[in-house]
Amino acid sequence: TPPIRASLLLLLSLLIARCLAMACSIPLAQWLLITIAFQVILRPCQSAVVMDMPEPEDSDAESCLLQKPVQQHALTQADDTGTWAARFQLASAEKEFERFSRWPDACNDPFGPPGPHPTQKSAYCAIARAKTGNIYSGIINSPSSEKYMGSSDTYRFEHQVAINLTDTTVQVETTKEFARRLYDLIVAGGALNGVPAPEALTNAFGPQCSLHNAGFSNNKSSTITAVLLENGNIREIWGYVYCLTKNMPALTDIFMKANTSFFKGVLGAEAGARAFVVVQERKAEVVTSAAMPSNVKYTFGFPDFLWPTKNSWVNFGFDASLPNDVGGGVLWVGARKHTGCNETGLMTDSPEIYPPLSQREIEAQCEGKAPPCQLQWYPGANCYNLVADSFYAERATRNGYRMVAGPSGTTANVFQLALSLGFTNDDLLAFRVVMTAWLVQSNDHSLLETMLAAESQMPSEYSMQWGRKSYDQDKWPDFQRIWPRGTTLNTSWGPVFQSFHFLP
Asked: What are phi and psi of 73, to 5 degrees?
């Protein structure tokens, strides 16, 4: 079969390339490139497959590789224009490999130690390297399934995928259970301080909400209750969740005070026990980070309970530098720059909006005017400019993926909150469906951006795939990974989700 042939070829290439590398003292990055080159030479019209990388054997490679293993990828020349296209792709990858073999520049000569406080600087560099996403993933790859589509076609395709996901039982049931647990947590958290439920709900969901947030109606406790427990649509429910994630003092107060009995009382014995473990682990990180200077905690620590995990691609969203007291120096250029936000321009009755606005949403947006009226929403696409030479933009551009606002921080925040509510890592497969349905339809992110943000916490069997593999038969194999074909998920709270069709 094609996978077996590719594996045999890879083994031969690895052996030859490794012998050359040992004889010539070639670093790991160059050794990998030689392996790829041998495959291109030996199979000029087939595919070159880069299998899982071995453990790093030198400090340069170790500084680039991260805790989660690199997934298998393929460079399929038949999808492009033949051998010359493959060589161009290889040259582009070689340039990026070379860049990563020295990364981050600020931590290596001539910028790295020695210098002011070299020991402290080395410690900062080690933390930065551990916090970054899987930067090798996707360097050598075939084009994405949407690479040769026009921008309007990719927009329509991705939004149709999001609409299809919105209508799934996975989305409906996962959103419903999450909303119930979150409501119970906030109400019980208020009780810890002697605060009545209505006030606790308003204090948690109200302060950071406005009509610029899609799905927001008002900050009345009766509305919040109706949305979370009764009849809120996907946009309304997750709109309130988003506003809560921007109001960290409300969650911090609960998570700092709550004990295991609290979580078990709110979430049940098993879910409560899981939640307590997650919260306690993050609490230790938050307390440690609180002692860091304000100019370093966001790059080198965990400043809050929902901060992305240390190997999340979301860390590449914003600029990062070494502290000035150890010599400074740029670690990476952020994927996006905030430009100020513009309203969406859509009307309350726009056919592009799915599901259609609820009566609550219409009344809130129109503010007493007769509908239809113009929406006041600020989608992510209207708030950021992407930075062309960032890790994210370079990778997504070469592979041909649609970009909107960079890897989704909201997805990472929700995943951490879900674990803090007692959901399991396997349950996060369902949450990836939900985040994709919500954030792509609202034009806050692209398919790639939600999948990339989810990757660091996804079980390996549900891991994403960059581009097409030579033996892929599906039309959209990389996007099929949103819910891998044939997968049945036994959730931790009861429902069993069967495999389903969602791609056009």
From this structure: -135, 165
β-bridge mates for residue 76, sequence order:
47
Q: Cβ atoms within 10 A of the Cβ of 222, count? A: 11
What burial letters (b/e) apply to 264-288, b meaning 16+ CB within 10 Å?
bebbeeebbebbbebbeebbebbee
- Residue-by-residue DSSP string for 170-214: HHHHHHHHHHHHHHHHHHHHHHHTT--HHHHHHHHHSTT--TTST
**Closest Cα partner for 136 from 334, 308, 313, 335?**
313
Q: Distance between CA atoms of 234 and 374, rounded to whole angstroms?
A: 20
CB 421 within 8 A of CB 493: no
What lies within 8 Å, CB to CB, of 37 at 6+ separation is 90
Tokens of 5: 């042939």
Could you tell me if 171 and 437 are in contact, meaning their C-beta atoms sit under 8 angstroms apart? yes
DSSP, residue by residue, 265-320:
HHH-HHHHHHHHHHHHHHHHHHHHHHTS-TTTHHHHS--STTPPPTT-GGGGGS-E
Which one has a higher pLDDT value, 1 or 121? Answer: 121
Q: Which positions ≥6 away from 217 have C-beta within 8 Å?
A: 223, 227, 236, 358, 360, 361, 363, 364
**Secondary structure letter of residue 231 according to DSSP:** I
> Strand, helix or coil at 338?
strand
Of 283, 286, 285, 244, nearest to 260 by C-alpha is 283
- In tens, the pLDDT along 358-387 reads 999 999 999 999 999 999 999 999 999 999
Are 316 and 133 a contacting pair, CB within 8 Å? yes
CA distance 16 to 20: 6
The alpha carbon of residue 414 and the mean position of all alpha carbons in its chain are separated, in whole angstroms, by 10
**Whole-prediction pTM:** 0.83
Is the CB of residue 154 less than 8 Å from the CB of residue 200? no
Residue identified by tokens 């997968």 is 487
Residue matched to tokens 């003292």? 25
Segment 406-436, tens digit of pLDDT:
999 999 999 999 999 999 999 999 999 999 9
Pairing of strands 330-332, 489-490: unpaired
- Report how far residue 391's alpha carbon sits from residue 333's, in angstroms, rounded to the nearest whole number: 8
Q: How far is it, in rounded angstroms, from Cα 269 to Cα 275?
A: 10
The enclosing H or E element of 115 equals: none
| Integer angstrom CA distances of residue 51 from 6, 79, 137 | 10, 20, 11
Residue 335, both tokens:
């994927």
DSSP 374: B
Provide the mean pLDDT of the chain: 84
- For residues 227 and 216, give the distance between their C-alpha atoms in angstroms, rounded to a whole number: 10
